[in-house]
Amino acid sequence: MDNGDHTDEINQLPPGVALSWGIVKKPRRGPKGELSVQKIVDAAIEIADRDGLAAVSMSRVAQSLGFTTMSLYRYVTSKDDLLILMQDTICSIPIPPEDPAKPWREEIKEYVDACVGIFRKHPWFGDIGITGVPLTPGNLQVVDWMLRTMRDFPLNEFEKMSFILLLSSYARACGLIVRDMDRAIREGADPGAFGGIGYGAALRQLVKPDRFPHLYPLVMSGAYTDEADNPIGDDLDFGLERILDGLEAYLRLKS
């Protein structure tokens, strides 16, 4: 019989994940100005936002807070755990209230935009590698948001999770692209360089049909270097719309 005691299962969670759920014993309260997990995480995020993820270390965070490095370990046991908590904190974004009148495509676009926004606000986010399934509450709250959107879809649980992975992967790819563009522009790059404007004439001299038979007509028309009228608008938005078209077509097949 299940007596409700799941201590063993909870103890199997990585320490950083457990700490994100607030189920790890906290240090005894110290004097006024004592540290806290949230203060440590906020300080680490501030450093990463300003100087990049490589600048984050337990000693650097401790110094920024005016404490010794050893004092941080009373709250967060390792840098890896700190990264988990940083990631969870920035993923704890406001979830839009449920609106039955809102089309599901619009809600999914809001989700993708929100994910891309995390990469833009916290460029270091993409430097943290993916190590497993999301386990922390901030990440899971976002997953729950998408499951809410899909609640009436004629899909099984595995199909729903697969579509969430597809959408999240596209959001991550877009987030990294936009992040890198933002960074390059801040460092003085010409925004027009991302569309290839200014390089069309040179490419028309270099790209020959015998070597690049399929690229050649795009270069000659100006489409490759964004020198022709673009009927599809933003490339990333266009790609998302086509993913949603595919999801919509799949839903019709399942209905």
UniProtKB/TrEMBL annotation:
<keyword id="KW-0805">Transcription regulation</keyword>
<dbReference type="InterPro" id="IPR004111">
    <property type="entry name" value="Repressor_TetR_C"/>
</dbReference>
<dbReference type="InterPro" id="IPR001647">
    <property type="entry name" value="HTH_TetR"/>
</dbReference>
<dbReference type="InterPro" id="IPR050109">
    <property type="entry name" value="HTH-type_TetR-like_transc_reg"/>
</dbReference>
<protein>
    <submittedName>
        <fullName>TetR/AcrR family transcriptional regulator</fullName>
    </submittedName>
</protein>
<keyword id="KW-0804">Transcription</keyword>
<dbReference type="InterPro" id="IPR009057">
    <property type="entry name" value="Homeodomain-like_sf"/>
</dbReference>
<keyword id="KW-0238">DNA-binding</keyword>
<feature type="DNA-binding region" description="H-T-H motif">
    <location>
        <begin position="57"/>
        <end position="76"/>
    </location>
</feature>
<dbReference type="InterPro" id="IPR036271">
    <property type="entry name" value="Tet_transcr_reg_TetR-rel_C_sf"/>
</dbReference>
<feature type="domain" description="HTH tetR-type">
    <location>
        <begin position="34"/>
        <end position="94"/>
    </location>
</feature>
<dbReference type="Pfam" id="PF02909">
    <property type="entry name" value="TetR_C_1"/>
</dbReference>
<dbReference type="Pfam" id="PF00440">
    <property type="entry name" value="TetR_N"/>
</dbReference>
